[in-house]
Amino acid sequence: xxxxxxxxxxxxxxxxxxxxxxxxxxxxxxxxxxxxxxxxxxxxxxxxxxxxxxxxxxxxxxxxxxxxxxxxxxxxxxxxxxxxxxxxxxxxxxxxxxxxxxxxxxxxxxxxxxxxxxxxxxxxxxxxxxxxxxxxxxxxxxxxxxxxxxxxxxxxxxxxxxxxxxxxxxxxxxxxxxxxxxxxxxxxxxxxxxxxxxxxxxxxxxxxxxxxxxxxxxxxxxxxxxxxxxxxxxxxxxxxxxxxxxxxxxxxxxxxxxxxxxxxxxxxxxxxxxxxxxxxxxxxxxxxxxxxxxxxxxxxxxxxxxxxxxxxxxxxxxxxxxxxxxxxxxxxxxxxxxxxxxxxxxxxxxxxxxxxxxxxxxxxx
Length: 365
Ligand code: PMP
What we know:
The protein is of the alpha/beta class. It is 38% helix and 15% strand. Helix 1 runs antiparallel to helix 8 (260-270) and helix 10 crosses helix 11. The chain is globular.
C-alpha cells in the first residue's frame, strides 16, 4: 500500500493529521457546536421553492459575485451589528473556513506569517499551513483572556502579516472586548481578522467588532450561518470589511466558487432570519444551565459567550471524555489538560449531559 511518505508531499504537511472531531456514534452528539433545533417549517417550504427555481438555471454558472446574497447579508449585519454595512463590504464563501482561507491566500502565503492567540480555533494554523503561511502561537492569560498589554507586545515582536482574534473564542467561549481589538489593530501593520463565528450567542452587552470597521481598512470580521442560523450543512460563511479587502479577495477566489443552489438556499434562509434566530435564546439558556450546574458537582467552567462551555477541572480529560461517551454523551477533548468542551443544545441534551457528568464527576475530578 502506498503511504503518504511515498508521495512527493510538501515538507510542511508531512506528519500532519487532517482536522476533525472523532465521528463516533453516540446518542447525544455535543462535540461540534451545531445548533440542534430543526429548521422552521415555513423556511423548509420556501427552500424547496427557491432550490427548484434555481435548478432551472443549473446549466448556467452562478452569479460569480453573489451580488444579491451579499446584499441580504449586509442587510442582516446592518440590522444586528450596530453598524451600517454596504453590500460591497461583504464577501461570502463555502463556510467561513473558505473565507478565512481566501484571506490567507490574499494576505498571507510564502514568506509571510499569521498569529493567533492559543488555545483557539485549531483550523487557523491548519489553513495557514495549507496556504504556505508561517504560524506564530500568541499567548493568553491563565484564565484564557487576552491581556491587551501582553498581546500588543507579542504583535510588535512577531510583526505578523495576519492576526486572528476569535471572539467569542473557540474552545474557551471567551469574548474579547473592543478596546483590546482596537489596541491590537494599532499594534499591527497587517490584517486583523476577528473570527465572530459565535457572535450571535454573546451575552447581553458584548458588542461586535463590526462597530470598529469605520476608518480601519485592515480589519476583517468573519461570520457564519453554521452556528446561530442552524445551517451547518449549507456551508455559508462571510466577512465584512473595507470594500478594498473584498477587491483583494477577488484576486484569489476561484471563479464561480459559490454554487447557485447555495446562494439560493442562503437567501431563502436569510428571509427567515427572525424565525431561525429564535432558537438562540433557547440555546443560551441551556449554556447558562450547564454553567450553573457545574459547581454542585465540584466542577467549574470558563465564562462563555458562545453556544458551548469549556468545563473542568477533570484529572484526565481523555478518561473523562471516554466515561461520558460510555454514557451516550459525546463531548470534545480539545487537548487542554483538565478541560473538556460541551455544546449547548436542547433541554433534553442538557439533561443527558448533566446526568452523565454527575455520575462520572466523583471519579474524575
Ligand atoms: N471559526 C470558528 C471559531 C469556528 O469554531 C468554526 C467552526 N467550528 C468556524 C470558524 C468555521 O465554520 P464554518 O466553516 O462552518 O463557517
